[in-house]
Write a structure and sequence with these properties.
This protein is mainly α. It has helices spanning 3-59, 68-91, 97-113, 119-135, 147-170, 178-196, 207-230, 235-242, 245-257, 263-282.
Length: 296
């Protein structure tokens, strides 16, 4: 008699996570279609600025108090958050969405694999390396993956790793509300930078509704959904499901952007997904992806 409620209690948060991932990747696809209007840097500024406004209204970061030892990690956290957004959007100008997300995932994956000790752990290392070899344009032509775009996606992944490490310290007292303060710090740097390098002549008030939709799809809605899911699922289950994000990104790219991947690229992407799932389930350590630790 207890099985149906148990299944329901698991199925609902799993569906919530899937909806969250669909929202984020739909937002990324929408952002890419808007690049011709004001450029990737302008769209980054628009999304980060409006997402920061939404998060600030919800969490009121000006009321938070941080200890002296938390301030430097908080600054690094905010800069990593902004840099992650900035580099990722620059990368998807020339790299298919699914590949960019897979390359970005190597940041937290590398962080998780730093705790590799057992033989099984190194299976995930090998899978991740194989995935990278066949995704990165290392002197070979795999559907002409742009080297600069791929490098920017890996850079976004490095920012994600810094984001995780510093977020754990900065958010010790305030938890998810720290995201609002981090987003505010990142916005102070990357919104002016994004606007400065954008196509200024094309800015207009008509972009505001699209920017708000982008901010909701990419930040406010998925963040809220993941907070609901995390309270109802074990952290490892949550992290394993989050490992599906590159596949969701590839699907979104195919459906909304017409970005079809080669068989080699699909296999490489699956290798990185398998490595991420395996590391989440088996590697002993603290590097678990949570809403506080994922890209805003």
């Amino acid at each position: 008699m207890s099985l149906p409620p148990s299944r329901s209690s698991v199925a609902i948060p799993v569906m919530v996570i899937l909806i969250s991932m669909i929202s984020i990747q739909s937002g990324a696809s929408l952002a890419k279609t808007l690049f011709p209007l004001i450029g990737a840097t302008g769209i980054t500024a628009l999304r980060l600025g409006l997402a920061t406004l939404i998060l600030s209204i919800i969490f009121r970061p000006w009321r938070l108090r941080f200890r002296r030892e938390q301030r430097w990690p908080l600054i690094c956290y905010g800069l990593a958050l902004g840099g992650m957004n900035y580099l990722f959007y620059l990368s998807i100008r020339t790299v298919p969405l699914g590949i960019a997300v897979a390359l970005e995932f190597t940041g937290p994956l590398a962080l998780a694999l730093l705790g590799a000790r057992r033989p099984l752990d190194f299976v995930w290392v090998v899978l991740a390396v194989l995935g990278l070899v066949f995704l990165l344009p290392l002197g070979q032509d795999f559907s002409a993956v742009d080297p600069l775009g791929a490098g920017l996606a890996v850079g976004a992944g490095a920012c994600w790793a810094v984001y995780i490490l510093t977020g754990q310290r900065a958010g010790a007292d305030h938890g998810p509300a720290t995201v609002a303060m981090g987003s505010l710090i990142g916005a102070l740097v990357f919104v002016p930078l994004g606007v400065g390098f954008s196509q200024l002549d094309h800015w207009s008030w008509s972009l505001l509704p699209l920017g708000l939709l982008l901010a909701v799809l990419s930040s406010a809605l998925p963040y809220s959904l993941e907070m609901v899911a995390l309270t109802r699922l074990p952290a490892r289950t949550f992290g394993t499901l989050m490992s599906l994000e590159p596949a969701m990104a590839a699907l979104s790219g195919m459906l909304f952007l017409g970005e079809w991947l080669t068989l080699t690229q699909c296999l490489a992407l699956l290798a990185i997904i398998a490595a991420s799932m395996g590391a989440t389930l088996t590697v002993r350590g603290k590097a678990t992806i949570t809403p506080l630790e994922r890209p805003d």
